[in-house]
Amino acid sequence: MTEPTRPMRRQDIRRENEKAILLAAEKVFAEAGFGGATMQLIADLAGLPKANLHYYFATKEELYRSVVQNIFEIWLQAANCFDAARGPVDGISAYIDAKMEISRRHPDGSKVWASEVMHGAPVLQDYMESTLREWTDGRVEIIRRWIEEGKMDPVDPRHLLYMLWATTQHYADFGHQIETLNGGKSLSDRQWREAKEHIKRVILTGIGAQPA
């Protein structure tokens, strides 16, 4: 005899509603931009009354910041592999794998971030000058250490990071272009694996990375 399903606790309901709102907001902001998006569109896509949406996020700007910070926090977690890696082969390989998976599973969030930056970061400039700068400086120091240890060629760490971001996020931000060139179909699991391996091989060879 199966046990009866317990009703969801208020905290669980809140968590599920916030998740639905953020996913819906990602899609609406990605397609319409900040100016074209409305709280009503987001509420409709999330399947919630507009009043409920305002209960969780008082304004469109607050919701927008949450969407962009959410994707950035996911990117930050992906970069944890840098801290524990023995060298660039391990660290950069794991970072590429993680960033590619994020592009595959969170393409709308990446597009929102790209649009915000291309428009001069009118909403999130403060976030870029604090959190993003601090995170970038930390990764630059790790790459410099690998260079000093002779584990890779003396490349500019910032330009290497820019290259990693541009390459991996291309698969999200220009996903439609990739699908068009792939015969109008999304990349298969095999094609995603091949893309990851190709990117790792080209970048690691290009920076002269040596196994730890």
In short:
The chain is an all-alpha fold and 212 residues long. The chain folds into two domains: 10-58, Orthogonal Bundle (Arc Repressor Mutant, subunit A); 67-206, Tetracycline Repressor, domain 2, CATH 1.10.357.10. 76% of the residues lie in helices and 0% in strands.
Describe this entry's structure for a reader.
The protein is an all-alpha fold. The chain has two domains: 10-58, Orthogonal Bundle (Arc Repressor Mutant, subunit A), CATH 1.10.10; 67-206, Tetracycline Repressor, domain 2 (Orthogonal Bundle), CATH 1.10.357.10. 76% of the residues lie in helices and 0% in strands. The radius of gyration is 20 Å and the shape is globular.
Helical segment count: 11
- Gyration radius, to the nearest Å? 20 Å
* CATH class call of the largest domain: Mainly Alpha
Q: Which CATH architecture of the largest domain? A: Orthogonal Bundle
Could you tell me the mean pLDDT? 91
Major sheet description = none
Low-confidence stretches: none
Distance between the termini: 55 Å
What share of residues is helical?
Answer: over 70%
Reading the helices and strands in chain order gives: HHHHHHHHHHH
* CATH domain topology of the largest domain: Tetracycline Repressor, domain 2
Principal-axes geometry comes out as globular
Please count the beta strands (DSSP E, at least 2 residues each). 0
Number of domains: 2
Structural class: mainly alpha
Instruction: Report the sheet-strand fraction.
Output: under 5%
Q: What is the fourth-level CATH superfamily of the largest domain?
A: Tetracycline Repressor, domain 2
